[in-house]
Write a structure and sequence with these properties.
Blueprint: E1 4-11, E2 15-16, H1 26-40, E3 50-54, H2 66-73, E4 82-85, H3 91-105, E5 110-118, H4 144-150, H5 157-167, H6 172-191, H7 216-220, E6 241-251, H8 252-257, E7 264-273, H9 282-294, E8 303-306, H10 311-321, H11 334-337, H12 341-359, E9 363-370, E10 374-382
Parallel strand pairs: 3-4, 3-5, 8-9
Antiparallel strand pairs: 1-6, 1-7, 2-6, 5-6, 7-10, 9-10
Length: 383
């Protein structure tokens, strides 16, 4: 079977909500990483086969097929098409999967993959699906089919995060300790310069704005998001932010044609659905399914990047998979680095690749919970 390779991976810094990137048009934010990706690699822009971007809420500045418009705004070749996909929080991870599948099928050779989200300009509803914009009605209201199957059970990320905490007996204090460690790791990675190679400065912003010098005492002072969810506060939740990320995925033929050095081989791609009411637990079943499919064991996975939508999500996953916390999000996760919905999958893969190169590990696994009770899993092999 033809193989798909990652040649490059980069991202903007994560700009905190209303921070340094808040004023940047979403198209320009996407264009920034695409322009850098093309400039860094010896492939003429007009020889790219496609641009596949993830973006959640393709409205406002994110409307109009932002994969295509970002490529054009970057001043790149008009003959290159683009498509934008929405698998909720896993959108740009799914973009990577589609690119890998196109290469493995032999139908394409060079694909720019990534995602973009400007959450300052297009905020989401705190109670609905990850991609439900403020001011829009409940998407399930009035659906006879949905009501017949699920009744009035809440499809609510905070409800799900609290339900997971209760089921796995994770206290607020335990989750706050986890969150504090996420910030500590991210700040340490910044101090050690481990993000420098993956970040393309944007609008004068060189480092991620989101990691915080906080404490357990400060976290304990925060009010829960609602009385219904007593353990869920802003401290144990991912941060909204503005960011974009991009990767270059190519075939073996392209490696030879352009004399490129591959950094990783895409070993496995899969996606799995789970209970939409639990909403955030799908990474557990999806990881198990991926291991069964590949024949790998968790002790053979050197690094895991799992999206920190909430502390309870990652803590439950790690407990069920019996995986080393030290090798899970070793440079911090979305609690510290932010969760720019449509860009998060590409951001996590960028972090995963760079960490494998830093540590010398062989296999890395990425997964994340997604709206509707879904999860993608990607396994790469460092070369």
């Amino acid at each position: 079977m033809p193989q798909a390779y990652i040649v490059d991976a980069l991202r903007t810094p994560t700009g905190k909500r209303k921070g340094a990137l808040a004023h940047v048009h979403a198209i320009d934010l996407g264009a920034h990483v695409l322009k850098a990706l093309v400039a860094r690699n010896a492939i003429p822009a007009d020889e790219y086969d496609d641009v596949i971007f993830g973006c959640v809420d393709t409205i406002g500045s994110q409307a109009g097929d932002i994969a295509r418009t970002s490529w054009l705004a970057a001043g790149l070749a008009m003959n290159v098409p683009g498509t934008t996909i929405d698998r909720q929080c896993g959108s740009s991870q799914q973009a990577l999967h589609f690119a890998a599948q196109a290469v493995m099928s032999g139908t394409q050779d060079v694909i720019a993959v990534g995602g973009v989200q400007t959450m300052t300009q297009i905020p989401i509803s705190s109670a609905m699906l990850a991609g439900q914009p403020l001011g829009f009605s409940d998407p399930f209201s009035g659906s006879k089919g949905w009501q017949a199957r699920f009744g009035n059970q809440p499809v609510n990320q905070f409800y799900a995060a609290q339900r997971i905490a209760d089921h796995w007996q994770l206290s607020r204090q335990q989750m706050e300790a986890y969150a504090l460690e996420s910030h500590r790791r991210a700040l340490q990675a910044q101090a050690d310069g481990r993000f420098a190679a993956q970040i393309v400065p944007c609008e004068g912003l060189v480092d991620d704005e989101t990691p915080r010098h906080t404490s357990l005492a400060k976290m304990a002072e925060l009010e829960p998001v609602s009385a219904e969810f007593p353990s869920i506060t802003a401290a144990v939740s991912s941060q909204t932010c503005d960011a974009s990320a991009a990767l270059l995925v190519v075939s073996e033929a392209a490696l030879k044609r352009y004399n490129l050095t591959p950094r990783a081989r895409i070993h496995h791609v899969s996606v799995l659905g789970d209970d939409p009411i639990w909403h955030l637990t799908a990474p557990i079943a999806a990881t198990r399914a991926a291991l069964k499919k590949t024949g790998l064991r968790m002790d053979e996975i050197d690094v895991v990047e799992i999206n920190e939508a909430f502390a309870s999500v990652v803590m439950a996953w790690a407990r069920e998979l019996d995986y080393d916390p030290a090798r899970t999000n070793p440079n911090g996760g979305a609690i510290a680095l932010g969760h720019p919905l449509g860009a998060s999958g590409a951001r996590l893969m960028t972090s995963l690749l760079h960490q494998l190169e830093h540590s010398g590990g062989r296999y890395g696994l990425q997964t994340m919970c997604e709206g509707g009770g879904q999860a993608n899993v990607t396994i790469i092999e460092r070369l």
